[in-house]
Design a protein that fits this description.
Layout: H1 15-24, H2 36-78, H3 89-93, H4 97-110, H5 118-125, H6 128-132, H7 144-263, H8 265-312
Helix pairs in contact: 2-7, 4-5
Keywords: Coiled coil
Length: about 325
């Protein structure tokens, strides 16, 4: 099935001026300086021109098909209707008396010279006895000049159809070559040029985006670690605040005790003096005990030495 194609519009311009303008541009404005919108418009223009060429080819194919149909109609109308004249009489008689009479009447209208034929008279009179007889009737003869006329007309139509088909084939080949050249130009300039550069740029941007995404995930992991550390630090700060409050409470208690001690400084001094005298007495007693211990150790060592001498003796 062929899809419905829109007819070419007068506004569809040829790509030759556009390609000439593009070829006239300097090399520095060739590919990267062109906007993607301009390339897209050029591609759409080429696609519209391709559709126009395809529509023309389809229209020419339809014209050829209609021409073939006209030739067949002409053949069926002016040639096939006279073919029963060339058939044997037995085959012509098998169709029935009425059909034979009708066909002979049509032939008599076209060829007046057949009105005097005995076969035409017998067919028009409806002679069933001769139709059923074993002896074949006399065969009719088609006029040579009429057959040549129809054959010449048919051959002329065939020649015209062949010439038109050849011209249309050449035109289709030229249009197909032009469309192929346009497709190659579009593929080389747009698809392999600007679009390829855009695809490379897009791939580079995607690679950069992936790198930035990885860096972002790394930064987010570091941020989560820092947030955990910040929460731990906040907990320590809270504990330090509680310890500070406890220290302030103890400081208050110590300040109260200090104030109380300062108020009782005389009593404390007396207690300190008594404690010092007690310490001195304890130190003197300790010295005395050490002296006693040393004297006892000396005595013990002398007695042991005396016991060893006695054992030796």
């Amino acid at each position: 099935m062929h899809r419905t194609r829109r007819p070419p519009r007068p506004g569809d311009a040829s790509p030759a001026p556009f390609l000439a303008r593009r070829a006239a541009k300097p090399e520095r404005d060739s590919k990267r300086s062109r906007s993607p919108c301009v390339d897209e418009l050029a591609f759409q223009e080429l696609r519209r021109q391709r559709r126009t060429v395809q529509q023309r080819i389809q229209q020419q194919s339809d014209v050829l098909l209609q021409l073939e149909r006209n030739v067949l109609d002409f053949y069926c109308t002016h040639t096939v209707r006279f073919e029963p004249l060339l058939e044997p009489p037995a085959d012509a008689a098998s169709g029935g008396v009425d059909g034979e009479a009708a066909s002979w009447e049509q032939l008599a209208v076209v060829f007046p010279e057949l009105r005097d034929s005995t076969t035409l008279a017998d067919a028009c009179n409806g002679d069933t006895a001769d139709a059923s007889a074993d002896a074949p009737p006399e065969a009719a003869v088609v006029p040579t000049h009429a057959r040549y006329y129809y054959d010449s007309v048919l051959m002329r139509l065939y020649r015209e159809s062949a010439v038109q088909e050849r011209d249309l084939s050449r035109q289709c080949a030229s249009e197909a070559a032009r469309v192929a050249a346009l497709e190659r130009s579009v593929r080389h300039d747009i698809v392999e040029g600007t679009l390829a550069a855009q695809l490379r740029t897009e791939r580079e941007e995607q690679d950069a985006l992936r790198g930035l995404t990885d860096a972002l995930s790394t930064v987010e992991s570091h941020c989560e670690a820092h947030q955990a550390s910040l929460r731990a630090t906040e907990l320590r700060v809270a504990e330090m605040e509680r310890a500070r409050e406890l220290c302030l409470a103890r400081t208050a208690v110590l300040e109260a005790a200090k104030q109380e001690q300062m108020d009782n400084a005389g009593r404390i001094k007396a207690e300190v003096t008594a404690f010092r005298s007690a310490v001195e007495a304890a130190a003197n007693d300790l010295e005395r005990r050490k002296h006693v211990n040393r004297s006892l150790e000396d005595e013990i060592s002398r007695r042991r030495a005396a016991m060893r001498r006695r054992r030796r003796e």
